[in-house]
Amino acid sequence: MSGTVLVARPDSAGDVLLAGPAIRAVRAQAEEVVLLAGPLGRAAAELLPCVDRVIEWRTPWIDADPPPVTGEHVARLMAQLPEAEEALILTSFHQSALPLALLLRLRGVGRITAISNDYPGSLLDVRVRVDESRHLPEAERMLAVARAAGYEPRDDGRLAVRTPPASLVGPPGYVVVHPGTTAPARAWPPERHREAVEALTAEGFQVVVTGTGGEKALTAAVAGRHGVDLGGMTNLAELSGVLNEACALVSGNTGPAHLAAAVGTPVVSLFSPVVPAGRWAPYGVPYVLLGDQQAVCKDSRARLCPVRGHPCLSTVTAEQVVKAVRELVP
Question: How many Å apart are CA 261 and CA 17, to the nearest integer?
């Protein structure tokens, strides 16, 4: 049995949710797991089973709006870090674990495991190498790091969150439509979302539209007269309760798609190919992938659509969404 283990996944909510199976594998053999998260992932980190404590730090080489690297900023991290016997640094294929490994080494962490195709020198004790030409699902990529560190999973390896609260909507069986995304390149047009709400309602589904406080105008426009507008009314934990009682989610490639997977809800995934679906499609639940996965923006990691008209998603119709929901909901 290990003592305190630090696990780092300092980026967005969806990435943190996908780290859940690896974290549970560690916690099964550790006395305490401390999760290092970023501001965008903090709420998701607090939903994960087997996380004993969360510390937050904006990571300059991970954050999409990075803070400057200063002694003061680094000192804030050092002051929060626990006296950990070892650390696992979880990254995506386009991220480096080595800057954080250096800081953890300076903090005195004795054993550090991470993926690194670059030579890590003495920064890592267990170096995991991955064939990046294979689009391994993110959850499995992170489980590979846990296994390399000696932590075999002891459950089914699915995504999970702490018990969701009661839904704000009833009765169960509604369809959730979540039109917002963190990157505009991954967004289905708002007018198409509204058409989908109208079409799903015409098919006999109750439709609930969700979004953040900053997306109230969007959710109101999408819900129209037919949907229940919950824009700005749920935090991440409350959203897990709403998704838990839904029969399906219609969403882009964004955090709520992974939250739906964590509560076992099927997903109609409006997936822009700017990142590979093989890595970031909903994990462990039934899903239907919509969108042109061979569009010219494929694998570009663009946050803003580089192609006039956003053809990879704008060509998807409301009728296709209804058909996909029908495939997922008997």
Answer: 9
* Average pLDDT score over residue span 208-220: 97
* Residue 251 backbone phi and psi in degrees, to 5: -160, 155
Nearest to 44 by CA among 219, 231, 258: 258
Q: Which amino acid is at 18?
A: L
CA–centroid distance for 174 within its chain: 23
d(CA 289, CA 170): 27
Residue type, 318: A
Q: Given a cut of 80, is residue 1 above it in pLDDT?
A: no
Assign 226 to helix, strand or coil: coil
The stretches of 151-205 forming alpha helices (DSSP H) are 190-202
Q: How far is CA 116 from CA 150, 304, 309, in A?
A: 17, 28, 37
At which residue do the structure tokens 């009833």 appear? Answer: 170
CA–CA separation, 243 and 109 (whole Å)? 39
Q: Are 247 and 329 in contact (CB under 8 A)?
A: yes
**What does the CA dihedral 229, 235, 240, 243 come to, rounded to 10 degrees?**
10
pTM recorded for the entire structure: 0.96
- The C-alpha atoms of residue 220 and residue 230 are separated, in whole angstroms, by 9
